[in-house]
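Support case: user asked for a sample of complex input and structure output to validate their parser. Sending the pair below.
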Amino acid sequence: MKNHLLPFTFKYGALIFIGLVILFFSMRNEYFFTYSNLTDILRSISIVTFVAIGVSISLMVDGFDLSVGATVSLSTVLTATLMVWYEMPLVVVLIVPIAVGAVVGLLNALLIVKIRIPDLLATLAVMYIVNGIHKTYTKGYSIYNNMPLPDGTTAPGVMDKGFLWIGQGKLLGVPFPVILMLLAVIAAHVFFKYTRWGRQMIMTGGNEEAARLSGLKVKRVRTLAYVASGIFASIGGILFASRIGSGQIDAGAPMLMESVAAVFVGYSVFAAGRPNIIGTFFGAVLMGVLVNGLTMMNVDYYRTDIIKGSVLVLALAVTFIHLNRRKT
Amino acid sequence: MRNISKSFAGVPALNNVDFNVRSGEIHALLGANGAGKSTLMKILSGAYEADEGIIEMAGTSYSFRSPADSKDAGIHCVYQEVDTSLVPHLSVTENIFLDRLATSKTKAWLTWGKLHEEAEAVLSRIGLTVSPRALIRDLTLSEKQLVLIARLLAEEAKFVILDEPTAPLSLEETDKLFGIMKGLKEAGIGVIFISHRLPEVFRICDRITVMRDGGRVLTERTEDMDATGVVQAMLGRSFEEEFPKLPAAIGEPVLTVKGLESGRRVRGVDLEVRRGEIVAVVGLVGAGKTELSRVLFGADPADRGTISIKGQPVRLDSPSDAVQAGIALIPEERRKEGILVRESVLHNLSLPILKSISRLGFLSGTAERHFANTQIVGLGIKTPTVSQLTAYLSGGNQQKVAIGKWLGTDTEVYLFDEPTKGVDVGAKRDIFQIIGKLAQQGKGILYLTCEFAEALGLADRILIMCDGVIVKSFARGEATQEDLLYYASAGREVLA
């Protein structure tokens, strides 16, 4: 019995833990376990989940993308200015930021894959540059409807109604961003489990040299992973603008840590010990539940970071103790 | 050293070995690959601990638990890979006194002027004229080696192990090194010299010890031995392994290589492999075989030369190009390069054929499992399920996976680099069978190995590689192990 109990705990420990946390909050506050609060939690994590999927993809090829937060910021203000400053149609408003996110990913890939700068350093540098670009572009101002411009006039445009619905509307009683998030999670999961390109990414991340010697074009695979990471971050930025109804400066800064935390908590789900999309989703859920529940219990927001960090450490410790034991 | 035994995971590597070195002599330690030389020397230098046996110096017995212990006792080792023992971005002086700086033998306050002077003195003893302030990364390979020797002089070593120091050196540099070795000998230091090059051994050594299969075969004075006797002792007489050689029709050339050069290890290789032919390339460790196989597979760039498949010149910028052209490599570093150990048997086998088992990018699980099961049955891969991680398979079964993954591709030429390394006897036979069958199907096989017996048993033609060039070619049945070892170790010097 004991032999079966331990692996079981490692495999489902993270899910059981999430269950216990939800149970705990439900007992402390009757409002916690209600439909509207639960969808609230899902809506609050939808943006982070998009960014976290991007981070998972970069980790999947054994890389790391620190520039996602900056990409979220850039994409948010870009989306807002396209409407407020330039009154662009909705299609352009959605496509341009995604293209820019892809370009940031290409830049990362150029530095990492071609010039061979270590991933952490390269994406850190790109993070600086992109942060600078998004502030320079807006001259340090947040973007909102009919904002005053530096030349004394007011901006001509407002945020598009249809656009705001993406972040704030509901479909069949479910917040639309939650639907988008679930679709993205399912699509990314299917991509990695059932498609050739997903498998190629996993194999490249597993051992780049062995994958290369099996005839994979590993450089192309890694490039695509960074581009995907940039695109998911920029979608996160679009959702953020749509949710807030304005283009906030530095909106993405906290996203980096939030999403990285979700991904690493995800390592412990099913004791995978490696990045996986379903794990990332549950990681984001756990973080969302913690913030929501603790806020309801009137815990100061700055204390929640300590708790989130501790949960992350716990998840990682359990996972890696398990993995290292399995190796020996 | 007396009655030294050591085993790894139940496999004995050394069995009751006695070995002794006198002060002021140069003692050669010889043996084929896997004879146990390195293990013995690692025990002496404290890198491994012996399971049994004692080490004595001047009547006192020692037990070395770590390299630091044996250095304290005055035993120093210069490993073949000099770069692993030097810090490239530090100065010569700092590297010479590294051991001293690493322990508390120096004063906490370092007087650089004085240290540089001391280093200068040591360097002049071995006739090395580099500035003590120069950085290690700016030195040549042989200079780095000499810095290591300077280090052990500075540490007042009593015994020195030189592990294949001449392998990367030119003739001139080798002469210089031998001069220094004589100097060490005159200073009363006992030198243990490991080398594959017999002429060198006879030139410089006082005594010779030969090891084979984890035991000591003989220790003789150099005057009492000749090259033939040493080779016989190294190979043994009991070398009777069965090689299933399947008959195969030999057809037109599939792989033609002309004037191939790459870096320092592949220096102008010409060869040809025909359909159904098994061509063995034999050579000692460091002869350039692995490098050759990597260039042929597009994993490393070629500086010069042409590679043709079925008469058509091909350009190989990456392994992916090579696979397209019909070349497959089963690499030597199986666990690092041949398979992905953290992935399942299924995913490993299907890796090169993902494209052909997917439609619109979606993988067909049925086709993937069908292919994997075909290979598992066909090659006799012993695994509980297809989803078993390859890390948990035995070496032989891992190798079968590394071979099996190519069987779904349109491969014309198979490159095998030391395919039997770390594989048990039973699985070796299986692998020979598989290779024989591939030849029967009209594939061209290039078999790179340092196991001469395998080349003799398996190959239709044997090419001998030494220092990056093919020095000799034998047809099947023409050569003996002695011939192969002779040309592989003497190489160009014999031809010249």
